[in-house]
Specification:
Elements lengths: L1 H13 L4 E10 L11 E2 L1 E14 L4 E6 L4 E6 L9 H15 L7 E7 L9 H16 L6 H16 L6 H8 L4 E6 L5 E5 L5 E11 L6 H15 L10 H6 L6 H26 L2 H17 L6 H12 L4 E4 L5 E9 H19 L4 E4 L7 E2 L2
Parallel strand pairs: 4-6
Antiparallel strand pairs: 1-3, 1-13, 2-7, 3-6, 4-5, 7-8, 9-11, 9-12, 10-11
The protein binds alpha-D-galactopyranose.
Length: about 375
């Protein structure tokens, strides 16, 4: 569907056709707000993402058509050519970041479409960045390694979109593999694939369909809190800190910074616990850690919201093994690990009770762990 739409749109706008590329959104089982603290994350790519058709046009200009928005943008490849449209800045940013790394690129025509739900915390923007980074590397024969492609997306967020994000989303979007979660150490950048296909449980996302636009940049402010706490500890990152050491410097920190750091320190341990538990098929422990993560994200990190807390509460009452908010926060989805025999009842209860409380039903996305960025043909 998406592929044929993109193909048709390209044909309409630019005539002829080009090469087709795809990339993915992501889930994260556990390890939230740990990436920019040099900690562990445990994401996987999913079966929704961005499909882009691209063809070099022999000029120094980029012409891009966003199928879903029915919007067109055109820009040059120099810094002063930054486009006004926010969606086009992702593509512009990727081009600029490639150029900053010495990659020689020229103009191209592109049409793209995506099916990552926007604002759901599933990284639609990382999917867009990695689709273009992957495609431009391929089309211009740049020979960039996959980590560099992920960093190009991350730097695009930092330098062109104002979000000082970590590496998790772009990493997952580039490295994702069908049927596997990936544990990434964001300090050493070592990672391992973990096949994840439990027979007894399913993963499902419930989308609150709310996105709370908060004043300022709450994500960046969380990061700054962590940086202050790390500095008080005399460390580059919070990674590797202990609660004992944090308590020892508590008087140097605001209560808020202390609680942010307390969450991150606990979360680092929980990721490792979950990986161990998965090896044993111990889903009770996996789920219990997910609830603990939610508690920390809600109370200490303060990135949850009423709707997310409500859905996690419903999960608990329905005997769901584990549930928590997922992603950066302030809206978006919960991720739920549900035993097969409780699945239907849980989904029905979540729809009904959320609907009664908030006036609309949550959206339900069963998780299918899929491949990351690749060329379709
Ligand atoms: C967003 C960021 C990621 C990560 C998560 C929270 O998705 O882009 O780098 O920090 O929030 O875990």
């Amino acid at each position: 569907m998406t592929q044929s739409n993109v193909r048709a749109a390209f044909e309409r706008h630019f005539h002829g056709s080009g090469a087709l590329y795809a990339s993915a959104g992501r889930i994260n089982l556990i390890g939230e707000h740990t990436d920019y603290n040099g900690g562990f994350v445990f994401p996987g790519a999913v079966d929704c993402g961005i499909t882009a058709m691209i063809r070099l046009n022999g000029t120094d200009r980029v012409r891009a058509y966003a199928v879903d928005l029915d919007a067109y943008a055109e820009f040059g490849l120099r810094e002063e050519d930054k486009p006004a449209e926010s969606w086009a800045r992702y593509i512009f940013g990727v081009c600029r970041e490639i150029q900053k790394r010495g990659g020689g690129i020229g103009g191209f025509d592109a049409a793209f479409s995506g099916d990552v739900p926007l604002g759901a915390g599933m990284s639609s923007s990382a999917a867009l960045e990695s689709a273009f980074a992957f495609a431009l590397d391929d089309l211009f024969g740049l020979g960039l390694d996959k980590f560099e492609l992920a960093r190009i997306g991350q730097s695009t967020e930092h330098n062109y979109c104002g979000v000082k994000c970590g590496i998790m989303d772009q990493f997952a979007s580039v490295f994702g593999r069908k049927g596997c979660l990936m544990r990434l150490d964001c300090r050493s950048m070592e990672f391992e694939y973990f096949p994840f296909a439990p027979e007894s449980h399913k993963l499902v996302l419930l989308d609150t369909v709310v996105k709370h636009e908060l004043v300022g940049s709450p994500y960046n402010r969380r990061r700054e809190s962590c940086e202050r706490a790390a500095e008080a500890l005399g460390q580059e990152f919070l990674r590797g800190a202990t609660m004992e050491r944090l308590d020892a410097v508590r008087n140097k920190l605001s209560d808020e910074d202390y609680r942010r750091a307390r969450f991150v320190i606990g979360e680092e341990r929980r990721v490792l616990d979950v990986c161990d538990a998965l090896q044993r098929g111990d889903y009770a422990t996996v789920g219990e850690r997910m609830y603990a993560t939610h508690e920390g994200l809600s109370k200490d990190y303060e990135v949850s919201c009423e709707e997310l807390d409500f859905l996690v509460g419903v999960a608990r009452e329905c005997g769901v093994a584990g549930a928590r908010m997922m992603g950066g926060g302030f809206g978006g989805c919960t991720i739920n690990l549900v035993a097969n025999d409780r699945y239907d009842d849980f989904i029905a209860a979540a729809r009904k009770r959320f609907g009664e409380r908030f006036g609309h039903e949550p959206k339900v996305y069963p998780v299918v762990i899929s491949d990351g960025a690749h060329k379709i043909g």
